[in-house]
User: What shape does this take?
Amino acid sequence: ADFSEVARRLADDFSAEAGVPVTITSDSSGVLTSKIRDGATFDVFLSADSKRPQELIDEGLAVPKPIVYAVGTLALYGPDLDLSADGDALLRSADFATLAIADPETAPYGRAAIQTLNSLGLREALQDKLVIGENVRKTLDLVQSGKAAAGLVAFPDLDARRLRAWVVPERMHDPIDQAMVVLSAARQPELAKQWIVFLTSAPARRIIEEAGFRLP
Assistant: This one.
């Protein structure tokens, strides 16, 4: 979900270059994995982690190995808060009603959010304040709509709002290595490989980095 807008921009560039339309379906990595296991006919799977693509390979549902296309960054954001200097101070103070995180069972950013709270020793203290979003984009929606005072969200999704967000130090959670893989049931396997090659090209990597992701 965190990569959906960038993927659509890259899809436009790929279509212009290859003359082939690309259809993007967005959801949490866990939900998309379940859909693939249930027989959804996607050609390429872009996950927000490397674990699920490897699982699909192990199950014979993808080939031949995951390729990391971006590294995600977790950030604490609240529309009425300037957290850029000391966002962890807000978490430690617990001076807010609710904190939105993505579902840790299906969304890698949600898992990273829980790991961050564990690193800060705040998991138990903040448990009753947590509001769970279906995926990381919907988690940001909870914050923007006022249903949560703040949220641990994907840094690239914040656009101009990044200046007021606290970027969670990488040491506080496992790396959000985002990997892609061609699916065994791909109807257009050669075009799928072209799409993956395109996503690792210099122009695509530049767009990915400009969007706020780190490069592998």
